[in-house]
Structures are given as C-alpha cells and as structure tokens.
Automatic annotation (TrEMBL):
The keyword Transmembrane applies. GO terms for molecular function: transmembrane transporter activity. The keyword Membrane applies. Its main location: membrane. Residues 26-500 form the Major facilitator superfamily (MFS) profile domain. It is found in: Membrane. The gene is LOC101063851. It comes from Takifugu rubripes (Japanese pufferfish). SUPFAM superfamilies: MFS general substrate transporter. It holds the Pfam family Sugar_tr. It is a multi-pass membrane protein. This is Major facilitator superfamily (MFS) profile domain-containing protein. The chain crosses the membrane at residues 20-47, 158-188, 212-230, 242-262, 329-347, 359-380, 386-406, 413-436, 448-468, 475-495. Keywords: Membrane, Transmembrane, Transmembrane helix.
C-alpha cells in the first residue's frame, strides 16, 4: 500500500461528532489536570514574599516601636550600636553593625513565608529569586524529560505519574526543615509539571473542532482556575506550609481520573497497536451513543501502521533537526516560546511588587489571563495562527514600552499598563501550545513540545533576576519584557498557518517556514 492510501485519522473518527459526552468528559478532566500547575507555578508570589522587616534590637525597643509608626533604624540590614548595647556595656563604640540577632518581620500580610522562616534578607536576599529559578529549572528539565518519556511509553502513564510525584513533592516540601531541602523539592516539583503532556493527550484524543476549544480555552481556564484559587487560599491560609499542602491536595484529586482518561489513539497507531487504538474509539462511540463502523481503520491504514511498526524506528531529539522544515520549525518555535514564557511569568510574578493588596492584585492578574483566553478562543478560527500570535505579542510589547513615557511617580498608570500588557502575552501563552501541537508531527510531537517548553523555561529562570533590576530602575523590567514581545511578534509572522490543516503524522509532512 502507498502512503497516500493512509486513512486520515480525523476522518476515521468523524462518526464520533465533535462534542459528544466522551469529548466533554475528556475536555473537563484534562483541563482540571492543569489546575495544580496554575496553583504551584505562582505560589512564589506568597510563599517567597518578603514582608517589611527590621533588625532585632532589644526587647524594650521592640515593645516601644510599631510597624505602623516610624522606623527606629535607618537601615534594615544593620543596626545602631547604641541601640544594640541594651546590656549597658559602655565598651561598644558608636556606628552600625550587622543584624547579628536576626530580624523582626511584619505579620500584617503573612504569618510566615520562607523569607521569615530562614531569614532570607540582606546578604541572603539572593536565595529568594534563586529558589524560584530552581522551580522553573525543574520545569525546564521536566519538559525535556517528560516529552521524551511520553513519546516512548505513552502520554497517559507519564501524565498520572507526574501528578503523583507533584503531589508527594509538595507535601514533603511543606515540612521542609531547611532552605536547601526546600530548593531541592522545589526543583523536583517543577520536573513533575503536566501541562504540556495534558495538551498533547487532549489534542490527540479529540477531533479538530473540540481540539481547538480544548487547547485554546479549556485547559487554559483550568490553569486559571488553579491560579485564581491561589490568592483565595493564601488569603485565608496566611502560612506558606499549609499553602503547599493545598497544592498537594489539588494534584492528588486528579489521580482517580486515570481510570476514565484513555491513552492517545494516535500514539497507539504510530506504535502499531491498532487494536488498542480501535478499542479507545469504540469505547468513545459507546459513551457518545453512536454506532461505530465495523472497521474503523481501513486495511490500508493497518498495512501502513504495521509497516511503520516493523521498521522499529525509535525517534529521538535529533529528529527535531533532521530535515530543513522541522529544523526551522523547531528553532522558531523555541525562540518564540522562550520570549512568551519569559514575559508571561515575569509579569505574573511581579504581582507582589505592585501597589495595593497583594491578594487582590494576584486575583486580578489571573482574571486578566481568563479574559485573554476567552478572546483567543473567539479569534482562533477567524484569524491565521501567525497573525494572531504576532498581534497579541505586538500589543503587549507596545503597551509595556509605552511605560517608558510615564513618570515613575505615576504608580497608578504604570500599574494599569503593566496589567493591560499582560492581556496580549496571556493570549499568546494560550495559543502557542495549540500552534506548536499543530506544527509538530505525531512521531515527535511530545518531544517537540518538550523542547519548546524547555526553551521557554530557560526564560522563566531569568525572570526573578530581571524583576530584581527594578530595585535600581523601576521601569527596567517592563522595558526588557516589552523588547522580548516585539522580537517574538516578528518571528511569529514567519511560521506557516495551520488553521485548516490536519495534524501531521510524519516528519516529511512538516510545513516550511514562510521566508
């Protein structure tokens, strides 16, 4: 049989309809698996927040001063020797000394964070962005590793193994006894992220129309659900340890769905397991109460699939650069993905630095993302993919760069522009997963997604330090984020449009870049 005789997968399962009970269940359950990711990705806003603090002096000084009153000492990282000499020792000279007795922290916003737990201020302040960067370094490694494992062993087992590891890690992290232990577990928690695996599994289980709905709005709203739950939980649970316990519970609640969510039939077909793929489709037909044809995948497809299986070809990361088309697609997707995640997480983590109530600011940031996802869902089938992706990033870039024209003392306008700028990159964050899924062939799709997400989280590792530059120039982080948006916008216009295309199965089916 010739390759041209291969039955199109979407055509083969067209009898299922787009929005039957099976599709609705898959969309709902796989979207909820993104909730723990949305929750844990932003926990640093509260878990690693640095409250107001000052040097400990004497008990009398501590009792006679108030957080709402004037500061007793000019510097929070040193103290006046005269105040320190509360024992009456006249041998101490005038001047300042380090905070050898530790710090007093305000409890107005949080009862405890890792900063108050281990004194991560002054000379130890670098440990706060470092611990957050380690989490995203885990994301980077996880995207790389999980993509390869799910292409080799299946989407479903990797997804639910990661959920278990994520929950167990968060639970143990809640009883961390040192900053080092916290950091190691933070990295492992990042490794076990499930977002990209969930998107791949859903995209390969669903027909085109429901696939677009799932990839652009459903799973994104699942992520936002977790994100919105974070400030609500943090408001009532002011301690960082219990916040991590909530994160663990969210992950464990998703595990029972493994008895409902099947393996990807596309992956099964590419592994030559045609009977198992047909069983998945027949069970879907039964759930949708529609009759299934006697033979779902025609003999032509069986012969082609068996021939692929007989070749015993194992794909690896080298295949992502094996031809000109897939090499260009991989490089462009990685570059764009890096810019998008760099800006998205940078603006999200900046919530704690905005004026006003930290809990309300975080909730508004999540709500803005929800609005962006709905807007993308409305536009995704009306505009070419490259135009939509480029337009959203250009909007964010222009908004963030305009902030340079606003005086730094006009904090309200700067805060509004910072939040508005997040709308565009939030939409881009939603569409990039769908776009890369449609660009990459089935045989290396999860590896391609993994490499793309890996490059993206290279950018997120830098975010905490970019935000730290705001100490020296408040507007600088936004200018850097704006420039990254413009670069991504220009690169996006060169990608091929996949709006009306079927998912490619083989590397030879990858579309060329539009030079």
């Amino acid at each position: 049989m010739e390759a041209d005789d291969l039955t199109d997968f979407d055509q083969a399962i067209s009898f299922l309809d787009n929005y039957g009970l099976f599709q609705i269940i898959i969309i709902l359950l796989l979207s909820l698996t993104a909730a723990p990711v949305g929750f844990s990705s932003m926990t640093a806003v509260f878990v690693s927040d640095t409250p107001e603090f000052r040097c400990k002096v004497s008990l009398d000084s501590a009792e006679n001063s108030s957080w709402v009153g004037d500061w007793v000492w000019d510097s929070r990282c040193s103290r006046d020797r005269d105040h320190a000499n509360w024992t009456g020792d006249a041998g101490l000279s005038n001047g300042t000394e380090p905070c050898v007795d530790g710090w007093d922290f305000s409890s107005q916003t949080h009862t405890s964070t890792i900063v108050t737990e281990w004194g991560l201020v002054c000379e130890n302040a670098w440990k706060v962005p470092f611990s957050t960067s380690l989490f995203f370094a885990g994301y980077l490694c996880g995207s790389f590793i999980n993509g390869h494992l799910s292409d080799r062993f299946g989407r479903r087992p990797v997804l639910f193994t990661c959920l278990v590891i994520h929950g167990a890690t968060a639970l143990v992290q809640a009883i961390s006894v040192s900053w080092i232990m916290f950091c190691i577990l933070n990295w492992l928690k990042g490794v076990s992220q499930t977002y990209s695996v969930s998107i791949i599994l859903g995209s390969e289980l669903l027909p085109k129309s429901s696939r677009v709905t799932f990839s652009t709005i459903a799973i994104s709203l699942g992520y936002c659900f977790g994100y919105m739950l974070l400030p609500l939980s943090a408001y009532f649970i002011r301690g960082w340890r219990m916040l991590l316990v909530i994160s663990a519970i969210l992950s464990f609640l998703q595990v029972p769905t493994c008895w409902v969510i099947p393996e990807s039939p596309r992956w099964l077909l590419n592994k030559g397991r045609v009977d198992e793929a047909e069983l998945v489709i027949r069970n879907a037909a039964k759930r949708n109460k529609v009759p299934a044809p006697e033979v779902i995948f025609r003999p032509a497809e069986r012969c082609q699939t068996e021939r692929k299986s007989d070749d015993k070809r194992t794909y690896n990361f080298i295949d992502l650069v094996s031809t000109t088309n897939i090499r260009n697609t991989t490089i462009f997707c990685c570059s764009i993905w890096m810019c998008i995640t760099f800006v998205f997480y940078g603006l999200s983590l900046n919530t704690s630095n905005l004026n006003g109530n930290i809990y309300l600011n975080c909730f508004i940031s999540a709500a803005i993302d929800s609005f962006a996802y709905v807007a993308i869902w409305v536009l995704v089938d009306r505009l070419p993919r490259p135009t939509l992706l480029s337009g959203t990033m250009m909007f964010s870039g222009a908004t963030l760069l305009i902030m340079k024209l606003i005086p730094e003392d006009n904090t309200i306008v700067l805060q509004v522009l910072g939040l508005v700028g997040k709308i565009g990159v939030g939409g881009a964050f939603s569409i990039i997963f769908l776009f890369v899924t449609e660009l990459m062939p089935t045989v290396v799709r999860n590896m391609g997604m993994g490499v793309g997400a890996t490059s993206g989280f290279l950018g997120t590792m830098i975010c905490p330090y970019i935000l730290y530059t705001g100490v020296y120039m408040k507007i600088l982080p936004f200018l850097i984020f704006g420039a990254a948006c413009i670069v991504a916008s220009l690169l996006s216009m060169l990608l091929p449009d996949t709006r009306y295309s079927k998912l490619p199965d083989l590397i030879s089916e990858v579309k060329p870049i539009r030079w």
